[in-house]
Design a protein that fits this description.
Muramoyl-pentapeptide Carboxypeptidase, domain 2; 7 strands; globular
């Protein structure tokens, strides 16, 4: 059994806004039973590094999602079959289901989200890292985020400015809710 590390605001100096535990997400339905946040130990270590780098710049990390059980990935795929943004749990690399991916943004010193040009889970080309149709400020903020995350050892997904994962995610096992022991899934 893979043991995932619980990520809390206190343990990792981040803010949690676990969107899939609320209806404020792309499906319009909560599919996590509670707002738990978990990562593989290697990913948790890299998150700590990223949070420290952000803090040096007077910024804070806000997390929208991290470990996503296979059941949740299936629910997301069934409700939003957008292959440019959502991995098919049967054929995709599904790094969230391995506990090695995190969806996040940056907050300024007052706690306001930096402008990233789109909201989290905007499934349009405007969400792509290299999109130049967003404001120059949003482009700078995305570059700041990718700089922090890659310096801390994360890889990125080009279609989603908010998504970062460990390199070679397929080397980690896919996990169901039961296998991870998180109890995240709405029964």
């Amino acid at each position: 059994m893979t043991t995932l590390i619980p990520i809390t605001e206190a343990s990792h100096s981040v803010l949690l806004d676990m969107r899939y535990a609320t209806a404020n997400n792309v499906t319009g339905k909560a599919f996590y039973a509670y707002p738990g946040c978990y990562l593989h130990p290697k990913a948790a270590e890299k998150l700590t590094e990223a949070a420290q780098l952000a803090a040096q710049l007077g910024l804070k990390i806000k997390i929208f999602d991290a470990f996503r059980p296979l059941e949740a990935q299936q629910f997301l795929w069934d409700n939003c079959p957008e292959p440019e943004f959502v991995s098919n749990p049967e054929t995709g690399s599904v790094p969230h289901c391995r506990g090695v991916a995190v969806d996040l943004t940056l907050l300024d010193a007052s706690g306001a989200e930096l402008d990233m040009g789109t909201e989290f889970d905007d499934f349009s080309p405007r969400a792509f890292h290299g999109n130049t149709e967003i404001s120059p400020e949003a482009q700078r903020n995305r570059l700041l985020l990718i700089g922090i995350m890659t310096t801390a050892g994360w890889d990125f997904f080009r279609n989603e400015w908010w998504h970062y994962q460990l390199f070679e995610p397929r080397t980690y096992p896919k996990l169901t809710d039961a296998a991870a022991g998180t109890g995240l899934i709405v029964q």
